[in-house]
Amino acid sequence: MSEAAPKNFRTPLAKVRGRGAARAGTEDFWLQRMTAVAGVPLTIMAIVIAMLLLGRNQAAVAQILGSPLVAVIMLLFVICIVTHMKIGMQEILVDYVADDSMKLTFLLANTFFCWAVGLICVYAILKMSFGV
Amino acid sequence: MAETTSPVRPRAERPLSPHLQIYRPMLTMMMSIVHRITGAALYFGTLLLAWWLLAAASGPNAYAKFEWFIGSIIGQLFLLGFTWALIHHVLGGIRHLIWDTGRGFGPQEREWLAAANLIGSLALTVIVALIGYLFMGGAR
């Protein structure tokens, strides 16, 4: 062989710019599947918990939702679905919103909404759990 | 005139990017759309979940307001719709997870999976709603 095989196919300019595989492209894809798998049993448990609380008064509901096992299940459920729905809505937005500034606005709103909903739920569960 | 001197031929009246309205509706396609719609509906439905949890954490007065809303006709419809969307999206998600393993893509399999998803979600919603009303005292 007269010439050694190139070790790297990136152009010099691409090397200078530091481009190449970001190694993080499948992060959202994987997180969406992971939260989907976790979401199946967690949703079933959350539906059962909600049904057990139907028709009970506030004191009983707060006491049961604040009990350690129920509170932990509900916390896992909320964190799981909020993570899942943020990625899901993000996917819908990048699919359908063509305008860049609109897309940025909606993506920001999506992030704010999911953090707000998630934090409200987590705060409420912890408040009932710690009884303050 | 610009049209006559232009070398570009007048553009024919045909769609550039065929989208949903071009295709004949099929069950698998409709279920794909419904999966996305239920996902988006559940997204806003979490406000109901957040309200419920926050009301329960706040006290009897806040919880009474939530109970009043969820007991109203609109609240009941919201709750029923939320229940169906949640069950449908979970079953649809299981379908997607089966597909992620590379299985279930055959012509009969995918039709069967789509039908099972729809029938299953409707049946489970009826069961959950009936148990809720008959045995658990309803949403009050």
Class based on secondary structure composition and strand pairing of chain B: mainly alpha
Subunit arrangement of the protein: heterodimer
Helix content of chain A: over 70%
Distance between the termini of chain A: 77 Å
Question: Beta-sheet strand percentage of chain A?
Answer: under 5%
What is the count of DSSP helices of chain A, taking H or I runs of 4+ residues? 5
User: Residue ranges of chain A: pLDDT <50 for 5 or more in a row?
Assistant: none
Derived from helix and strand composition plus strand pairing, the structural class of chain A reads mainly alpha
Kindly report the average pLDDT value of chain B. Answer: 89
Overall morphology of chain A? elongated
Rg measurement of chain A, Å: 23 Å
State the order of secondary-structure elements of chain B, H for helix, E for strand: HHHHH
Number of strands of chain A: 0
Shape of chain B: extended
Considering residues with a beta carbon less than 8 A from a beta carbon on another chain, report the largest interface and each chain's count: A-B, 35 and 36 residues
Low-pLDDT parts of chain B are: none
Mean of residue pLDDT values of chain A: 90
Number of helices of chain B: 5
List how many beta strands of chain B DSSP finds. 0
Task: Give structural notes.
The complex is a heterodimer of chains A (132) and B (140). In chain A, α2 packs across α4 and α4 (68-96) runs antiparallel to α5 (100-130). Chain A is mainly α. Chain A is elongated. In chain A, 77% of the residues lie in helices and 0% in strands. Chain A has 5 helices and no strands. The N and C termini of chain A lie far apart (77 Å). Chain B has 140 residues and is mostly helical. Chain B has 5 helices and no strands. Classes of the chains: A mainly alpha (132), B mainly alpha (140).
